[in-house]
């Protein structure tokens, strides 16, 4: 998809908030912890599938690209279950770009 095909700007307030939020954070901000759970993966995918998810400064994919690796019948009981499933899927399918603090620090010894 080109930038012109998205239903909204990947870097606008509906997307990555001007590149302040990436990947997992973009997916999680679409749900309400109090009202949306339990949540069926297929329902999330149906509602947000064509939405952009900025993974890093150069890469934007759709929610559908990420959720194609999660069974539509999977149900997330709460936001923690959603976080875990999305994180595992993103890591397993090369959509996870954050290496963690350890990748940026050295241990003095």
Give a written overview of the molecule.
The protein has 109 residues and is of the alpha+beta class. The chain has one domain (3-96). It contains four helices and four strands. A two-stranded antiparallel sheet has the order 1-4. A two-stranded antiparallel ribbon has the order 2-3. The longest helix is centred in the last third of the chain and has 14 residues, at 79-92. The N and C termini lie far apart (48 Å). The model has no long low-confidence stretch (mean pLDDT 86).
Give the radius of gyration: 15 Å
Runs in which pLDDT lies below 50 for 5 or more consecutive residues are none
Q: Record the strand order, biggest sheet.
A: 1-4
Q: Structural class of the secondary structure composition?
A: alpha+beta
Approximately what portion of the residues adopt beta-strand conformation? 5-15%
- The sequence of SSEs as H and E is HEHEEHEH
